[in-house]
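User: I'm curious whether this sequence folds into something compact or stays loose and floppy. Could you predict its structure so I can see for myself?
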Amino acid sequence: MSGHSKWSNIKHKKEKSDAVRGKIFTKIGREIAIAVREGGADPNNNSRLRDVIAKAKANNMPNDNIQRSIKKASGEGSGVSYEEITYEGYGKGGVAVFVETLTDNRNRTASDVRHLFDKFGNSLGATGCVAWMFDRKGVLILERTQERSEDDVMMAAIEAGAEDFTAYEENYEILTAPADLGAVREALEGQGYTFVSSELEYLPQNTVAMDPETQEALDKLIENLEDLDDVQNVYHNGEEA
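Assistant: Here's the prediction. I'll summarize afterward.
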C-alpha cells in the first residue's frame, strides 16, 4: 500500500522521546472535557471519549487521572468550557502550518499564537488558507515485534477496515477514515495488538523540502507553540531535504 512521507514517523519519534508528561496530561484532560460535553461520560456510548481514553493510556496517563477528568467534565458547574479553534499560516520557505487549539479564552489564544508566528518570522493567515492541503485521518502507530510478520499486521489492519498501511524501520503506521479510528483500533486490540498512539491527525497531501535554516525556524515555532497549554497539535507539510 502507498506510503505517506516520513513526516508522521518523525513526528511520533519526537513525541515518544518527550519526557514532559504533565503538560501532555493537561492537554488530554481538555480533550476529555470536549468529548464528555459532546457525547456524555459513558465511553461505551461515546466513541470520541473512547478514542481519547485510548490516547491517554498510550501516553501513560494514570487511570485515576482519566476518571477524575471525566467526572470533572460531567459535573454540573465545573466552570470551564473549552472550544476548538484552528489557526493556519505559512512558515519560512512556504511551509504550511496548521494549529489545533482547545481554549477557554479565544482572545488570549489568538494573541499567543499570532505572537509566536510573528516572533519566528512566519505568517499567520486566514481560516482555510492551508487546511485544504491536509487530510483528516485516524492514525494508529504500532511498534514492530518479532511475534507477527509485516504481512500479518498488514492483513489484520486491512480486514479491520484500515485505508492504508506503511511499514517503517521501527514501527507500522495504519491509517483509517476519521469515523473508523475507534472501530479499527478496537478490532486490532481484540487480536492482541497494542498501540504506541491512536488519534485523529491532519496529514499533508504533499510535502515541501526544507533546507537546514527553514527546518530550524520551523522547529522553534513548533516547540514554542506546543509549550502553550491551549495548543493541542501542530501540523505542517515540511520535510527535511
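Summary: Residues 83-132+207-240 form a domain with the Alpha-Beta Plaits fold (CATH 3.30.70.980). Helices lie at 7-16, 21-39, 47-58, 63-74, 106-119, 150-160, 181-189, 212-226.
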